[in-house]
Amino acid sequence: MIAAIGLIAFFQLVPACAEPRHYRLDPAESRVTFTGNSGLHRFSGTTSDLTGEMQADPRSGTLLDMPLVRVPVGSLKTGNEARDHAVQYTLKAKKHPSIMFRLTKAVSLDTGSPEVMRYRLTGELIIGGAARSAEIEAGARFEADNIRVEGATTLTLDGFGLKPPPLARVLGVRNEVPVRFETLWKPEEGRG
Asked: Could you tell me which residues come within 8 angstroms of residue 11 by beta carbon, excluding any fewer than 6 positions away?
């Protein structure tokens, strides 16, 4: 669900001689996975239906707009239709069909590794209509003109005022939901 969280401060990653560029999330190379747990079993879900774009000016080291990433709640699939409906119910998909994340700050965490740079990402995460501040650590790799960003965090249902359907509560669905994201940002050709 933190799909969107696949965002970084481009001033650390893009060559200094580059022109300002628009970047768009590539859904074929991006995904969000989550793990649920009840007293009976563990299950996981995933989606690649992510959208997001941003513009960065690598010469000045700034993001020209703060990225916003959207994940349609209906795209989260667990491999079980009844469970998918329970996930949509829990996340209030009828009234709030998208999970959204807007990056507000990215702080470099010096790891000494030129291959993977680490960042603390801060932003606003909106799930089920509830907006909360979110902070996670993510790794970023520069791949030719593309940026690959990966990370993980744990969300809590009650932190967003969410409750599973009654049967899921009887089965003891846990409040904590581990989430992992992998995103690939590609420059858009023909846009400056």
From this structure: 56, 58, 60, 61, 62, 63
Pairwise CA distance, residues 74 & 87, whole Å: 9
Name the token pair of 17: 């001689």
* pLDDT single digits (tens) 15-62: 444 577 788 999 999 999 999 887 778 889 999 999 998 876 555 445
- The mean pLDDT value for 101-125 works out to 83
Q: Is 19 helix (H, G, I), strand (E, B) or coil?
A: coil
What would the CATH number be for the domain defined by 3-186? 2.40.128.110
Amino acid at 7: L
Closest by CA to 2, choosing from 84, 68, 101, 97, is 101
Cβ burial, residue 123 (10 Å; 0-12/13-18/19+): buried
Q: What is the CA radius of gyration of the chain?
A: 17
Residue 94 is given by DSSP the state T
